[in-house]
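TA notes, week 10

Several of you asked for a full example with nothing omitted. So below is the full record: structure tokens for the whole chain, then the designed sequence directly under it. When grading your own attempts, check the secondary structure regions first.
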């Protein structure tokens, strides 16, 4: 039994940094052709393009805001043009902020909801014509969805919403042979390291004694993208070290 994604065609939103970048590189290195999108030009985008070129395969980086219907349409059209079809859609793009609920402006509530829930709605709906039986839709949620955390009520609400969206779509799209699941990371250390005191606090809470890495999340995404998970549907898989 071996995890191979050779011949798979994937779309990953928000793939230039952090967990998204780990997912893009993980899928590409497992043999998939990957289209990913980013919001703003940066050195991270340039370096990712370089890494993907060195990896080999048919990969594309597209500038797109997943909360904008017109830009999502253009992104999906790029997938159709460059890949022809899709086997995997990974929803990673999202935003976060830390605001006391009593002071949370309606504009900030809407921004987070439109990106973290509206983006997955738009991308999934528009990408459906490119997905056929055996396809896998993967939402990147968060462990906080079932725990809650102060100052992130808006963010937590959107991640909890992804669980409900997943359960409904698993039942609605299952008859078409499509699987829909959530990967819910716990504390993950990316290219922007957590402050020492935060890292130490989480290490004490996590039985494995460390924070997660983008690669830890990418491995579970690759499993859900592969045929090894062909009977896994409607699930939330926590990747949190047992916190």
């Amino acid at each position: 039994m071996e995890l191979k994604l050779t011949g798979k065609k994937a779309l990953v939103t928000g793939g230039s940094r952090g967990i998204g970048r780990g997912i893009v590189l993980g899928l590409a290195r497992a043999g998939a052709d990957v289209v990913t999108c980013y919001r703003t030009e940066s050195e991270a985008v340039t370096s990712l393009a370089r890494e993907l070129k060195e990896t080999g395969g048919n990969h594309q980086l597209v500038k797109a805001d997943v909360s904008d219907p017109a830009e999502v349409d253009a992104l999906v059209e790029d997938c159709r043009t460059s890949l022809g079809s899709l086997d995997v859609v990974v929803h990673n793009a999202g935003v976060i902020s830390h605001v006391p609920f009593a002071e949370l402006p309606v504009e900030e509530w809407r921004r987070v909801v439109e990106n973290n829930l509206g983006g997955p709605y738009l991308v999934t709906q528009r990408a459906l014509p490119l997905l056929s039986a055996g396809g896998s839709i993967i939402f990147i949620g968060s462990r906080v969805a079932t725990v809650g955390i102060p100052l992130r009520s808006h963010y937590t609400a959107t991640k909890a919403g992804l669980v409900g969206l997943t359960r409904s779509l698993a039942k609605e799209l299952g008859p078409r042979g499509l699987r829909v699941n959530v990967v819910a990371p716990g504390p993950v250390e990316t290219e922007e390291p957590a402050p020492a005191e935060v890292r130490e606090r989480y290490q004490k809470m996590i039985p494995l004694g460390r924070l997660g890495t983008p690669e830890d999340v990418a491995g579970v995404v690759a499993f859900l993208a592969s045929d090894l998970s062909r009977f896994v549907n409607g699930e939330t898989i926590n990747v949190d070290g047992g916190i």
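The first strand starts at residue 9 and ends at 12. Use that as a sanity check on your answer.
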